[in-house]
Amino acid sequence: MHFHIANLVYFGRAFPGDGYPDIDLARGGSLDGLITQLTPWTDGSMRVIPMRGEPTDGNTVREFLEMLKTVRDRVDKLISQGASEQKVEAADVTKEFDGRWGRHGRTASRLFVHEAFLSEMQKQPVPQRTP
User: Fold this and answer.
1) Total structural domains within the chain
2) How do residues 51-83 score in pLDDT, each as one tens digit?
3) Nearest to 31 by CA among 86, 112, 99
4) What is the residue range of 7's domain?
5) Residue 82 within any structural domain of the chain
């Protein structure tokens, strides 16, 4: 929800505020969808109410967005190199972010990486069958 006059936004599950997001793959959610949703809201003057935790501002959304992009890019790179989900998990693609986003939220870093992997795999071309 965006309260224009108050310069206030609430994202619900897209911005938990206290940890990694839950990517709702079953309902068509994706990592790119989260990134697209959050990109316009990184102005430091924007007031942000997270799903949980303390009110913050667009600067925190920008930091969260950069984390999402970094994890996505790392997962994409590993997938393009043929890595399995287990290899992506073993690569510890969230290590530098776990102190900030991985300790408090409802979504553990391992689950976030699992969802990010599945989200990115959905973008891969479907192999064509030969008759």
Assistant:
1) 1
2) 888 899 999 999 999 999 999 999 999 999 999
3) 112
4) 2-121
5) yes
